[in-house]
Design brief:
The chain contains ten helices and 13 strands. With 285 residues, the protein is of the alpha/beta class. The strands form two sheets. Strands 5-4-3-2-1-11-12-13 form an eight-stranded mixed β-sheet. Strands 7-6-8-10-9 form a five-stranded antiparallel β-sheet, with helices on one face. The longest helix has 14 residues.
Length: 285
């Protein structure tokens, strides 16, 4: 499946592979298959950089940290952070959500979608409201109202906010996203990657695509030289930006519509399938 614009843009040989993790590179059991590990290593050996671009926080990158080559960098929290996985997840760049903006978003969503609960993802960890589904991977979280979690005595005194998460127990996930964007889309960037009604909220203009574009510009790599993979709405901007893009066989319908091509599902090593074709020179535009 190929879109007209991708045929025009994809003439250049790929220099960078950008791949989402959950539902894309990772299998459903959160493992990286031997086939995928081999494909990633072969791409790096061929001079093609590989970037993991994910909604995950840096502290949850242990699933792929052993498979990062060369630069060692990953884009986390939907573009809010660039981290060095070789050093255990050191933050190299942060694109935060301002706390006053986050407070405005909280107030707006409380009014637009009553019953919404919130979590706050900081560079130092996550904290959440009493009604928010607990993070069992983060037992040290502070539990309090979002207004308290976002409070700081003076600007810049507290850890940067990477993203705000909003969860609703009843709304359809896509309807919740549409409602939030209509109510507060001028304040921040809204997306989602969960099958549930869980929204991820970043600073205005912050996305996987915008941060990937910055990283590519630093390396002199154009969009036409990037191949991207994804499966959920938080991947759409990245897939639309890249010269070639592939929706997984298990992808959300909006992702399939945005990508220039498709591959098989994550459990069938869809990323590795395309990388192998790239290296073999058999990838059709």
């Amino acid at each position: 499946m190929t879109s007209p614009h991708s045929t025009r843009r994809a003439a250049q040989a790929p220099r960078l592979i950008a791949t989402d993790l959950d539902g894309t590179l990772l299998r459903d059991d959160k493992s990286v298959s031997e086939r995928t590990i081999a494909a990633l290593a072969a791409a790096e050996q061929a001079g093609i950089e590989v970037f993991f671009v994910t909604g995950r926080p840096a502290r949850w990158m242990d699933v792929v940290s052993d498979h990062v080559h060369g630069h060692g960098l990953a884009i986390c929290a939907n573009g809010a952070a660039v981290v060095d996985l070789h050093s255990g997840g050191t933050f190299l760049e942060v694109r935060p959500l301002a706390r006053d903006v986050a407070l405005d978003v909280v107030a707006t969503l409380r009014a637009a979608a009553p019953g919404t609960s919130f979590a706050v993802e900081l560079t130092t960890g996550i904290h959440y409201e009493p009604q928010y589904p607990p993070f069992f991977l983060d037992p040290g979280a502070t539990v309090a109202l979002a207004e308290k979690l976002l409070y700081e005595e003076k600007p810049g005194a507290a850890a940067p906010v990477l993203k705000l998460l909003a969860q609703h127990p009843e709304l359809d996930p896509d309807d919740f996203l549409a409602t939030a964007r209509a109510a507060a889309g001028t304040l921040a960037s809204f997306t989602r990657s969960s099958p549930t009604a869980l929204l991820e909220i970043s600073g205005l203009g912050v996305s996987k695509a915008s941060t990937l574009a910055l990283c590519c510009a630093e390396r002199g790599i154009s969009a036409e030289e990037v191949v991207a993979f994804g499966d959920m709405p938080n991947d759409i901007e990245m897939l639309s930006w890249a010269g070639r893009s592939y929706a997984m066989g298990n992808a959300h319908p909006a992702v399939i519509a945005a990508a220039s091509g498709h591959t098989v599902a994550n459990n069938e090593d869809g990323v590795a399938v395309v990388i192998e074709r790239i290296l073999a020179g058999t990838l059709d535009d």
